[in-house]
Design goal:
The protein is mainly α and 212 residues long. Helix content is 57%, strand content 0%.
């Protein structure tokens, strides 16, 4: 796929999705961090349901530590892997207080040093909370990048590196959410909605669906 086609793809996605952003509900970088940690192998809808109650009670590192592990587990028990996630949230809250004055750091290195925070989570925080042009490759972006031919790769890091290199500059900041939302609602896993897709003539997927 050449640069002009990539630009056209992002131009159309940007027109179709004028306000691309996360569907996780948050008000502060810390709330977003907790929501993203909880979202691993969980739906945004499920996370939002749990955090709506949690954040009314505890939405700072101090509040989380005061809440305690057992009560935190009780708030997030509807989410998969809640035992591990609760332990990580307690540990990262303590680390934020000990090393960052309770603030969410703005560097990849510092974010990835937090318990339960990997490269993908760090990219989401850098992009969504702090406006940096990072692209966190989740299952939706991995599928869209490979299926369309936009940035094919054998693993998430390869896809991320290609998207980082090839995404047009004017779309770099929003590319993460444009691709996620396109993958979540149009370029779906089992039966992509090709007939109504705004990039169907640019997409290089050979097995396009004929009817929805």
């Amino acid at each position: 796929m050449n640069a002009s086609k990539r630009l056209a793809i992002f131009d159309r996605l940007a027109e179709a999705i004028p306000e691309p952003t996360t569907e996780l509900q948050y008000r502060t970088p810390f709330e977003l961090l907790i929501a993203v940690v909880l979202s691993a192998q969980a739906t945004d809808k499920g996370v939002n349901k749990a955090t709506a109650k949690l954040f009314r009670t505890a939405n700072t590192p101090q509040d989380i530590l005061a809440l305690g592990l057992d009560e935190l587990k009780n708030h997030i028990k509807t989410i998969g892997l809640f035992n591990t996630k609760a332990a990580n949230i307690i540990a990262l809250s303590r680390q934020l207080l000990d090393q960052h004055r309770g603030e969410v750091p703005k560097t990849r290195e510092a974010l990835e040093a937090l318990p339960g925070v990997g490269r993908k989570t760090a990219n989401v925080i850098l992009n969504t909370a702090f406006g940096q042009p990072t692209i966190a490759v989740d299952t939706h972006i991995f599928r869209v990048a490979n299926r369309t031919g936009l940035a094919p790769g054998k693993n998430v890091l390869e896809v991320e590196q290609k998207l980082d290199k090839w995404t047009p500059g004017k779309h770099k900041k929003d590319a993460h959410h444009l691709l996620i939302l396109h993958g979540r609602y149009t370029c779906t896993a089992r039966k992509p909605k090709c007939p109504g897709c705004v990039i169907k003539d640019l997409c290089e997927y050979r097995e396009k669906t004929v009817i929805i």
